[in-house]
Amino acid sequence: MTYPIIEEDGFKYIEAGTGETLVLLHGLMGELSNWELVIEHFKDRYRVIIPILPIYDLPILTLGVKALSRYLHRFLKYKNLNQVVLIGNSLGGHVGLVFTVAHQEFVKALVLTGSSGLYENAFGGSFPRRESYDYIKEKVEFTFYDPATATKELVDDVFKTVNDRSRVIRILTMAKSAIRHNMAKDLSKITIPVSLIWGKNDKVTPPEVAEEFHELLPNSELNWVDKCGHAPMMEHPEIFNTFLEKFLDRILLK
User: Fold this and answer.
1) Is 97 within 8 Å of 68 (Cβ atoms)?
2) What pLDDT sits at residue 254?
3) CA pair distance 109, 107, nearest whole angstrom
4) d(CA 3, CA 119)
5) Strands of the 47-51 sheet, one edge to the other
6) 29-33 long-range Cβ contacts below 8 angstroms, 24+ apart
């Protein structure tokens, strides 16, 4: 990642550009570098901020989607941010949904890509063979349509993470919280514009999940990315950025 991580008052984040604010929310196993091509594309027109969600820092007894939403609330108030566009992948999308239901006045629009919140087919309840590099490699490749997107660097990072006992306990705690916190009954409360940018071949949050989000979110649009898995901004960044740019132009520049 070419951008320095800023650390101040208990927050860690990346920031680039000026203008209307886009807040990017990473997933459970997501690295900040997953968003690098999004930052590069939008930093000349927008202020782009990625807070590091404190999955490995919050007290484990309180760790969950709601705790991350509260953290996001504290962060936005600390940065004096209002009327932001929240853009979340996977768990990050789920955090964005929970936050928006509670604090819709902070959010001008929401973008979800491979978001949890309704259903997800993730690693499951455990990592039965986490000591096996090939097993972890296979699980990371499952995330993408093209297995080659799972670079050795990415697999190495995930392998290191899941073989850290403290971290893997937190990952499983967080994953179970996400599964328990189903958003179906709350989505009708979100009346701001929502753009769903979804991989047509997503096996983690399959296409029917996107269709259900589209049906339950009253002011939403659904954009498909063909030959794409769970992370369109990584696998097809040009297409993702095109959909996102059109959405931003419509809601911010009208």
Assistant:
1) no
2) 54
3) 6
4) 33
5) 6-8, 11-16, 47-51, 21-25, 84-89, 107-113, 194-199, 220-225
6) 29/158, 29/161, 29/171, 30/89, 30/90, 30/91, 30/92, 30/231, 31/1, 31/154, 31/157, 32/1, 32/3, 32/5, 33/1
Q: What is the pLDDT of residue 124?
A: 46
Listed as ranges, residues in the chain with pLDDT below 50 are 124-125
- DSSP reduced 3-state for 14: strand
The Cα 241–Cα 219 span in angstroms is: 20
First vs last C-alpha separation in the chain:
33
Look at residue 28 and give its three-state secondary structure.
coil
What is the C-alpha to C-alpha distance for residues 197 and 194, in angstroms, rounded to an integer?
10
Report the sign of the C-alpha dihedral through residues 197, 63, 120, 182, in that order: negative
Distance of alpha carbon 237 from alpha carbon 40, whole angstroms: 11
How far is the CA of 180 from the CAs of 114, 118, 127, in angstroms? 17, 10, 19
Alpha-carbon span 240 to 233, nearest angstrom? 5
d(CA 12, CA 183): 28
Q: Are the C-beta atoms of 82 and 23 separated by less than 8 Å?
A: no
3-state secondary structure of 230: coil
The residue type at 253: L
* Residue 135 tokens, joined: 């097993």
H-type helices in the chain, by residue range? 36-42, 65-78, 91-102, 133-141, 152-162, 165-180, 207-216, 232-235, 237-252
Amino acid identity at 213: F
Over the stretch 14-52, which tens digit does the pLDDT of each residue have?
999 999 999 999 988 777 778 999 999 999 999 999 999
